[in-house]
Each structure stands twice: as C-alpha cells, then as structure tokens.
Amino acid sequence: MTQSRKKKPYMKAVVFGIFSIASYVLLFSRLEWVTEVYTKGGIYTVLPVTTALYFSFLHGAFASNVLDILGIEAAKSKSRH
Amino acid sequence: MNKSISLILVLFLSLAIVSPALAGGGGPPKDFKKGIFTAVNPVERTAEFRESGSEKTVTLLLGQALQPDDIKVDRKVMISLAEKDGHQFVKDVSIMFMGLTLQKIIALLLIGLIGGLLSGFIGSGGAFVLTPAMMSLGAPGAVAVASNMCHKFPKAMVGAYKRFKYGQADIKLGLVMAASAIAGVQIGIKIQKFILDAWGNAGSNLYVSVVFVIVLVVVGGYVFRDSLKLSKGGSDVETTKLALYLQKVKIPPMMHFKTAGVTLSAWVTIPVGLATGMLAATIAVGGFIGVPGMIYVVGASAIVASATELIVAFIMGLWGSVQWGLSGLIDIRLTLLILAGSLFGVQLGALGTTYVKDYVVKVVMGAVMLIVAVSRGAKVPVYLRDLGWMNLDATAERMLNHVSFWALIAALLTAGLIITGAMVKGMIRVRSEERQAAAEEIATNG
Predict the structure, then answer these.
(1) Check: complex ipTM more than 0.85
(2) Which burial class, exposed, middle or buried, applies to B409 when counting CB atoms under 10 A from its CB (0-12, 13-18, 19+)?
C-alpha cells in the first residue's frame, strides 16, 4: 500500500484568501484618505512599512496555500548545495 | 552564540550610523515639495501652491520649460524649485499619484509576478525592470523607486523564509553581507556625490551607466560562460580556484558559515559585502555583484548564494523603505499591486530552485545581466550628448529609449521562460522517478 496523499489546505487558502481580498478592498475603497496619510512622511512611515508587512503575511500565506492546492510544491529530496 | 549577538549588534550599529541615503541609487531626493496647486494665472505665468501640512498658499513663478497647461489644479503634485536672478521658480512638476486603469493594474500584477519569480530564483532582480516600468506607466521617478523598495523587503522576507526552510539560506553569511553592504553604500554615495559635484547630472548619469555596463558585461559574461561550461559537462557545483585560495587565508577573525559550508577570514567576506553596497548605491541592483561575489569569492554554491542574497535584500530593503517613507514618497497602491503578484512569484521561484541543478541559477543570472547591460548601454549616447561630447537627434534618442525599455522587458521574459521551463522539466522528472520507485516497491513487496 502506498502512502496516502497529503491533504490539500483548501480551508486555509479560503480563509487567508478572504482576509487578503477584504484587506485589499478595504484599503482601495478609501484611497483618497490612504494616499494622503501614507505620504505624510515622518512617523507616518510606519503605515506603509507595516501595511506591506501585513499583506506579505496574509497574502503570502494565501499564495503558499494556493500553490500547495495546485500541487506545486518543493522537491522532497534534499536540496542541492 | 556570543558571536551571533556581536554580529547582530554590529549590524544594527551600522544601521544607526548610516545617513538617510541608503539603497535605491543614493537615497531619496531632498530638493522637492509636495502639495497642490489651487489656481494658475497663464498671463503672468504664476501659480498658487499650498504645501502639504500647511494652510498657507504661496505664489510661484513657472519656469521656461513649463506651460500653464502643465499645472493640474487640485491634484497632489511633487514640484522641484530652482533659483535664477534671485527669483525662485518651479522647474518641474509631476502628479504624485498616477491614475490607475485596468490595463495598468494588470501590467503591475504581471510584472510583479515575473519580477518575484526572478527574485525567488536568483535572489535579486525585479527592481531593474519594476522601477522603469512604473515610471513608464506614469509614476514620478522618486515615487517609483520608493514604492518598489517598499514591496522589495516583504517579498524578500517571504522568499528568504521559504529558501531557509529548504536548507539553502545562510543567515550568518546574509547578516555579515548586509552589515558590510550598508558600509559599502556609504562609500558608493560619497563617490556619486564627488562625481555629481565635478561633472553635474549628465556626468553622474554617464558614470552610473558606464559602471553598470562594465560590471554587468564582465561579471554577467563570466557567470554565463561558467554556467555553459557546467551545463556541458561533469560536475554540478565547482568551487573556483580563487575561493579555494582565499579559504587558505587564515587572518583572524575567522568565520564559519554552516549552510554555505565554508570557513574563511572576515577580511575576505567583508570586501564582497562592501562591493555589493557600493554597487547598490550606484546602480540600485547590488545583487548583481553580491550573488556572483558569494559564489566566486566566498565559495558558496549558486543556490546558497542566491538564497542568502534574499536575506541581504530584506535588511537593505527594510531600511531603504524607512528612509524613502520618511520623505513621504511611497505610493502604497503601487506597492500592494506589485506585491499581490510578486508574493506568488517569489514562492514559485524559491521552490523552483529545489528542482534544478546549481548551474541553472547561473544561466538565468548571466543571461539577465547581459540583457540588462544592453538596456543601459543604449542610454550611454544620450548622456554623451548631454555632456556635449557627441551629436544625437531626437529620433535616434527616442529609438534608443525604446531599445533600453524593451531590453528590460526581454530580460524579464527570458528569465521567466528559462525558470519556468527548468522547473516544469524538473517536476516531470521528479514525479516520474517517484512513480517508478512506487512501481518497484509494489513489484518487490508483491
């Protein structure tokens, strides 16, 4: 009997996907305010930097799960170096 | 453990002492103002300008190069001012937030995806095409650089994390490279400033292009030739004679890099980082010297070097983003649109490295560097004309600009095709090996 196939992370992809899309919609629906505040400079620098980090976690996790579902995964053999 | 702590302290100390002008070709510009025009007077060639954060409106003269029609009222703009005969006038105006159409959004997502793929695979790249692409879509140069920088560090972080998980990224080597690259940036900026003072803007542009072309042709040519040699025969990973010789230099402090599998003197590692930083300050793509430096001088494999470069890109990109953000130049819309594509691309590129042989990373890197050299080389006659050293008519200039831009797109597409092709081939091979192994297992066990 061969090893059973790994379960695909459908649920994770859906949850991260919903949060990621909702975040994009939220931000892009308030563009006038966002672009004004995010380019004030000084202490407001925190906003673009943390927003980029926030999206990299959320959207990055979504992308990772989507790739897993599509069966695009790293080779299991030990990496070559 | 103590050594690691000292290393991190050195890194952050270096971060604290660097000037705001880190990464991105010399840091954010200083001679501009942000705000909106409230009215234009075409007869007197003046405009009313209200600076961001201020309630006061000032009347500004328009420079000769500007037409009253160029002034868009009630839109956030960046202006640069100049002074002549004691009068201050507006030299240049650009709309800060370019209009986004569906085509532009799709273009940003696609360029982000392929740029990310390249980054995940060779550890750097993307910036060289993303910044000019954003500018050609309508973003002012400084906003394009800042928005690209702010997308680079989270993308590099995700790529570095993935490749660390695959056992490819050497964190210690990455930290040492980043700390010394930061010092290198300072030296690069000093050289740039000296050239700018001596020969002006055109001289500085020419210097940047010449350095770009020479480094890319020499290093890229060497990497490409090496990859072809390795693809034809024998061994997959080959340590250069130079790296082997340098590993015999035992001048303390000695450093051991576990994942890269090398022990060598700090006096060898640090200059590679310095050169990476100097190049980052000059041409904004430090990875084009950092990755070959880690391969041919430090002695790491191409896969470890490209993975480690992502750590360097993360640290330098984060600091650079803070500096550009302090000047209020990041257009978060552009950052997030590229990021949406590149977070897929970078993970694809990272996992792609687990299916290919080491030399494929070199093939992609060498090919990209050589095509990008063509792009920058096409700009050299324009700068020579600006310096008054040669004649060039407007048609020729337009043609050269087209060649320059499309060469960048060609570099990106070539890299995308090689990576995808190698990855698909590798996946098919691995799957068929797995199927064969399973069939043999069934046959053996009955």
Answers:
(1) yes
(2) middle
Contacts of A73 in chain B (CB under 8 A): 351
Two tokens, residue B264: 């060598």
Biggest distance spanned by C-alpha atoms of chain A:
63
How far apart are the C-alpha atoms of B144 and B152, rounded to whole Å?
12
pLDDT attached to residue A12: 92
Note whether A75 contacts B344, CB cutoff 8 Å: no
Which of B403, B223, B383, B361 minimizes the C-alpha distance to B297? B223
Which residues in chain B are contacts of A55 at CB distance < 8 A? 154, 336, 339-340, 343
H or E stretch at A16: helix A10-28
Q: Does A30 touch chain B (CB under 8 A)?
A: no
Total Cβ atoms within 10 A of residue B53? 11
- pLDDT surpassing 70 at residue B22: no
Spatial separation of the C-alpha atoms in residues A3 and B149, rounded to whole Å: 44
CB atoms within 10 A of CB A43: 9
Neighbour-count burial of A57, counting CB atoms closer than 10 A to its CB (0-12 exposed, 13-18 middle, 19+ buried): middle
Give the number of A-B residue pairs with CB atoms closer than 8 Å.
138
Q: What is the pLDDT of residues B335-360, one digit of tens each?
A: 999 999 999 999 999 999 999 888 89
Calpha distance B353→B301 (Å, rounded): 12
Put simply, the answer to whether B53 touches A49 (Cβ < 8 Å) is no
A32 touches chain B (CB under 8 A): no
Residue B311: band (very low, low, confident or very high) from pLDDT cuts 50, 70, 90: very high
CA dist B430 → B355, B359, B364, B410, B426 (Å)? 8, 18, 21, 30, 6
Q: What is the pTM of this model?
A: 0.86
List the 37-76 stretch of A: residues with Cβ below 8 A of B. Answer: 38-42, 44-45, 47-49, 51-53, 55-56, 59-60, 63-64, 66-67, 72-76
The values of phi and psi at residue B198, to 5°, are -80, -40
Chain A contact set for B259 (CB, 8 A): 81
pLDDT in tens, B363-414: 999 998 898 888 888 888 887 887 778 888 888 888 988 888 888 888 888 8
B347 touches A at CB < 8 Å: yes
